[in-house]
Amino acid sequence: MEIRSTTDEDLDVFVDTLHAAFGLFPETPVEGGGLWWSALETDRCLLALTADGRPVGTAATHSFELTLPGETLVPAAGVTAVGVLPSHRRQGVLSAMMRHQLAELRAGGDFLSVLLASEAPIYGRFGYGPATYTAQLTVERHKGALALPRGRGTADARATGSVEVLRRAECGEILEEVYDRYRRAQPGALSRPHRWWTLRAGQPPISPAPRYVAVHRDNDGLPDGYASYSIDSGTLTVDETITTDDAVFTALARFVLGHDLVSRVVFKHVPPGHPLRWQLADFRAGEVSGDMDWLYVRLLDVPGALTARGWFTDGELVLDVEDPFLGEHGRYLLTVRDGKADCVPTGREPDLSLDVRDLGSVYLGGTAPSTLVRAGHIRAHRPGAATLADALFRAERSPHCLHWF
């Protein structure tokens, strides 16, 4: 079997092979673009070929930036378009492509990669661990009143700013600008390259699918948040609400919850611990569903990744890290002082022993190391090690990723 990078001439073969792997047919191009594969970077796509040259597998990566705790922006390879023809599954094709891809990423200087898993069990064996989570909040509109603020400091944007309703086609630049400001401040968020917006490749509100957009503007008239939504059969569905300001989120939530001729409002992609449910006058009016994993993280260079992110507690831990897929093992002394980390090989006895996928899960601060100790994934070798790890790996806010790729 041969695994090689593609060229522009291979795009149709790549797309056809990928669709065949999932039993689908390529979509018909629509006016205004919107085909998700148009954002693929052909020099970052891989084809797996049989000895006689028949394509049987695909894999690709996007060039993203990932926001780490401490608002640090780092390059991140977004793994996507992974598929193997049904006739060649369980013959080592996927493992060979994953090993080839990880080697290429390392050679190119990447210290981490990320993906969205179509099936949760698949990618753990390749070293990817779930690192951000998302859920859906459904509110029956007749129960959707927000409680009045109690005291100063409560997030409430009724008295400041304004909300304007625009069609998606009228506000492309606004969406791109507001999203970019948001993702730079949100741990776990991925960039949306300009070409994605230009090609309209992805899911709403990037795609050409018709949407209304509630744009929030501050008192100076500058856009500082938006909610992309559609209405069908009395249900208003919010694709995403983008802002880093809780008061702006509240204003946008109040707007959609007050929409006429709507019986329920569905907020997709609500981050864990978001205050919106607590702002409802009737706590039970908000029904949480679809609680699921979203962004998976895979470390390719443990010291490089750990020294890249910001930290909020001083301390030191010895981490014993196994990487079964790549057949590697390392023991590292992680020392954190004044928000910066040093990570070097060590021969000291470990405080925690863990798989590289579990290190990926705790890396952004969305999964507590103590949870994985209790689950039997991580082994703590001394009392207090898990508690210290929880304090060290926490983020300034819950990591969250909205971008689909």
Automatic annotation (TrEMBL):
Annotated family: Belongs to the acetyltransferase Eis family.
NCBIfam families given in the database record: PRK01346.1-4
Keywords, sorted A to Z: Acyltransferase, Transferase
Gene3D superfamilies, alphabetized: 3.40.630.30, SCP2 sterol-binding domain
Record text on subunit structure and interactions: Homohexamer; trimer of dimers.
Residue span(s) of domain N-acetyltransferase: 1-151
Protein name (database record): GNAT family N-acetyltransferase
Annotated active site: 123 (proton donor), 405 (proton acceptor)
InterPro entries: Acetyltransf_17, Acetyltransferase_Eis, Acyl_CoA_acyltransferase, Eis_dom, GNAT_dom, NAcTrfase_Eis, SCP2_sterol-bd_dom_sf
Residues that, per the record, bind acetyl-CoA: 82-84, 90-95, 118-119
Keyword Transferase: yes
Keyword 4Fe-4S assigned: no
